[in-house]
Amino acid sequence: MSFRFRRVVTGHAADGKAVVRSDAVVGSAPRLPGYEARVVWCTGQFPASNDDDRFDDGAPGPKGSRVLFRVAEFDPAVAEHTNMHRTETQDVAVVLSGRLDMVLDSGEVVEQLAAGDVLVQRGTMHSWVPRGDEPVRVLFVLIDAQPVRVGDVVLGEDLSMLSGEVSPMPPGGDRP
């Protein structure tokens, strides 16, 4: 199920002129059964710096300063919602191809997200379920956020359904 895409990263030459620092085809890696992904870019601070010479995936900074871009692909043959989780992030999901449902822990379902649809996920307990016959490709943008508070209760990160196999946001200072 692996996929590939072209990633172009710009920067500056010593004279201040804009240049292409990297232009490469990169591939995905398996993260969970039926789910592959690749970090496109991750910031090391917020606001992000455009001064460094990095041109790989970027380096995540400490929690609270990260913005991560990830391209992911879901295999509809593995269409269960066993990936229920909550992160301390605001996530923007842009469906690039295929059809996808989002299931919330309340039982509410957002059905038939399709190419061009955008969903903003704000620290909710949720799961992704691919639909149809073709792989579902999504661009995720994850932005560090404060834990959700409902009254006096703090709803922190919950990755228990992922069995510790993956974390949607890399730990601060580690490679994505």
Description:
- The chain has strands at residues 4-12, 18-27, 29-32, 35-42, 67-74, 89-97, 99-104, 109-114, 118-122, 126-131, 136-144, 148-150, 153-155.
- With 176 residues, the protein is an all-beta fold.
- Strands 3-4-5-11-6-9 form a 6-stranded antiparallel sheet, with no helix packed on it.
- It is globular, with a radius of gyration of 17 Å.
- The two termini are 21 Å apart.
How are the SSEs ordered, and which strands pair?
Layout: E1 4-12, E2 18-27, E3 29-32, E4 35-42, E5 67-74, E6 89-97, E7 99-104, E8 109-114, E9 118-122, E10 126-131, E11 136-144, E12 148-150, E13 153-155
Antiparallel strand pairs: 1-2, 3-4, 4-5, 5-11, 6-9, 6-11, 7-8, 7-10, 12-13
Please report the number of helical segments.
Answer: 0
Helix fraction by DSSP (H/I, runs of at least 4): under 10%
Report the span from N to C terminus: 21 Å
The low-confidence parts are none
Number of β-strand runs: 13
Largest sheet: 6 strands, antiparallel
| Overall pLDDT metric | 87
| Rg from Cα | 17 Å
What order do the SSEs take from the amino end to the carboxyl end, as H and E?
A: EEEEEEEEEEEEE
Name the strands of the widest sheet in spatial order.
3-4-5-11-6-9
- What is the subunit organization of this protein? single chain
Secondary-structure class:
mainly beta
The rough form would be described as globular
Strand content: over 45%
Keywords summarizing the entry:
mainly beta; three-stranded antiparallel beta sheet; 176 residues
